[in-house]
């Protein structure tokens, strides 16, 4: 009896783990991008459109009716904040629509899709019935990926590079003058350390606002509950000529820089990054183009850094952590494509592809499937062609965020050859030579959604097909 019981239990055990992995597979979808790239809006609209599948023709499992139901379910990670889907959706779709609060830290949401098997699965499906695919969406700031590069650096190298870069950027002068009377070899004085960290943070914020992408260490801009703690109370210092005594400002800053790496950067990679299966990297390319050539060059470098995180072997510590595990698919998506008439979307996609070329080659080499697209998670405009002085202009019309007025705007023509734009950026041009790119912020439009219809978007369904389609067949 005992033996037979043991066997039955064993078989049940196997059956349970089979059903867990086969009948209820889990896809962990990472959503990242630099601050204001559009992560919050992307997740909110993606989930809303997967719940109401009336506007997802390019997601095959939605178009064919294979997805029979979609529900939000409790997420598996109990200590990670839940992505505040309901509040964000209410902001976007209410009677006075407004943009939701942006991502400030990691958060998670589980969307469970009931899928009727097709093809080969249908044979099995006659036995098993529909299966449930859990999509665990993990939202996190792209700045946190940039921090990976810090792991390879000691405090002295990091300080030197950061101070060098600062000379080229707005806001740097303030920090450099704060450094003026400071002796790194002097005994640590906490108010001095705090003053420097404050000035350093102000510089990072100014650089970010001016459109620069790499504003690491990432937590200085989005500190969350770490605000005011020693791991965020450091700054770069000029290296003293001689060895510094124990208890000096230099030594303590060096120690805190180390603590930031060990106690902030590494845990994020261990607990979140290492478990991602599919990744979308959102990029506000139009915003960078508007900010000018330097911002575009900086964006290109930041993207290369960010995507370096997906290249095994880039960092010894990370390779050890991942043990051969890798992200299977990476989508680079230029967001806010509703700022452009659709005739210019292929050019935006081409810019994305060019921006990502270096990084992408490396990620491809690592075996991940990659794609670049231009999308709008929430379409806030309609298209309109206007004629002026005998010329016709392809415009977009929407409600301006600043004034609340309706306006049709012509954002300027993106170059047909993305190389022109990127070369000017790489050559350190101050401004674009023969073009002005206007950027405007539109308010979300008031929506009247029919039953079963998610919020309007551009190619969100195509993005979903690339990221999830194969797991829903
Ligand atoms: P996050 O910091 O990456 O979470 O960025 P958000 O999702 O909060 O988006 C930042 C801002 O970009 C929003 O407040 C909007 O102004 C704008 N935005 C994001 N997605 C779209 C979009 O699809 N269309 C338009 N027109 N604007 C968008």
Q: β content, as a range?
A: 15-25%
How many E-type strands?
10
SSE order? HEHHEHEHEHHHHHHEHHHEHHEEEEHH
Helix percentage: 40-55%
Overall body shape: globular
Average pLDDT, to the nearest integer?
89
Could you list the spans in which at least 5 consecutive residues all have pLDDT below 50? 1-19
CATH topology (fold) name of the largest domain: Rossmann fold
Euclidean distance between termini CA atoms? 42 Å
**CATH architectural name of the largest domain:** 3-Layer(aba) Sandwich
Distinct bound molecules: guanosine-5'-diphosphate
Q: Which strands sit side by side, in order, in the main sheet?
A: 2-3-4-1-5-6-7
Number of domains: 2
Please report the number of helical segments. 18
Specify the CATH class of the largest domain. Answer: Alpha Beta
**CATH homologous superfamily classification of the largest domain:** P-loop containing nucleotide triphosphate hydrolases
Assign the structural class, choosing from mainly alpha, mainly beta, alpha/beta, alpha+beta, or little secondary structure.
alpha/beta
Largest sheet: 7 strands, mixed
Radius of gyration: 25 Å
Organism: Rhodovulum steppense
Pfam family, one: DUF463
Protein name: YcjX family protein
């Amino acid at each position: 009896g005992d033996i037979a019981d043991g066997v039955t239990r064993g078989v049940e055990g196997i059956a349970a783990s089979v059903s867990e992995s086969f009948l209820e597979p889990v896809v962990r979808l990472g959503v990242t991008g630099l601050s204001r790239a559009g992560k919050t809006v992307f997740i909110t609209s993606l989930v809303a459109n997967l719940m109401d599948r009336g506007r997802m023709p390019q997601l095959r499992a939605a178009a064919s009716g294979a997805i029979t139901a979609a529900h939000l379910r409790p997420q598996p990670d109990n200590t990670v904040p839940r992505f505040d889907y309901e509040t964000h959706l209410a902001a976007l779709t209410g009677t006075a629509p407004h943009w939701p609060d942006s991502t400030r830290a990691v958060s998670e949401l589980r969307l469970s899709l009931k899928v009727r098997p097709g093809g080969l699965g249908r044979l099995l499906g006659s036995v098993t019935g529909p299966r449930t695919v859990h999509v665990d969406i993990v939202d996190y700031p792209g700045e946190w990926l940039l921090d990976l590069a810090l792991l390879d650096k000691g405090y002295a190298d990091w300080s030197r590079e950061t101070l060098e870069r600062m000379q080229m950027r707005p806001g740097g002068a303030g920090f450099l003058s704060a450094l003026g009377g400071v002796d790194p070899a002097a005994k640590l004085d906490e108010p001095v350390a705090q003053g420097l960290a404050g000035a350093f943070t102000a510089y990072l914020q100014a650089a970010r606002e001016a459109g620069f992408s790499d504003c690491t260490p990432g937590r200085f801009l989005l500190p969350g509950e770490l605000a005011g703690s020693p791991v965020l109370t450091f700054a770069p210092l000029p290296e003293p000529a001689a060895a510094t005594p124990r208890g000096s400002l230099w030594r303590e800053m060096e120690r805190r820089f180390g603590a930031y790496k060990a106690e902030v950067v590494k845990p994020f990679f261990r607990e979140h990054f290492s478990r991602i299966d599919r990744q979308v990297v959102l990029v506000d390319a139009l915003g960078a183009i508007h900010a000018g050539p330097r911002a575009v060059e900086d964006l290109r470098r930041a993207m290369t850094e960010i995507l370096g995180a997906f290249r095994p072997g880039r960092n010894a510590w990370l390779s050890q952590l991942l043990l051969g595990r890798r992200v299977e698919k990476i989508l680079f998506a230029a967001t806010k494509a509703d700022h452009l008439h659709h005739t210019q979307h292929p050019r935006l996609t081409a810019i994305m592809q060019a921006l990502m070329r270096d990084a992408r080659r490396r990620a491809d080499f690592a075996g991940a499937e990659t794609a670049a697209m231009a999308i709008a998670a929430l379409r806030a405009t309609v298209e309109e062609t206007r004629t002026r002085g005998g010329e016709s202009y392809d415009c977009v019309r929407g409600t301006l965020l600043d004034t609340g007025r309706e306006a049709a705007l012509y954002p300027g023509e993106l170059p047909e050859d993305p190389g022109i734009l990127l070369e000017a950026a790489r050559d350190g041009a101050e401004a674009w030579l023969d073009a002005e790119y206007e950027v405007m912020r539109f308010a979300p439009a008031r929506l009247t959604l029919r039953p079963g219809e998610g919020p309007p978007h551009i190619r969100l369904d195509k993005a979903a097909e690339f990221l999830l389609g194969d797991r829903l067949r």
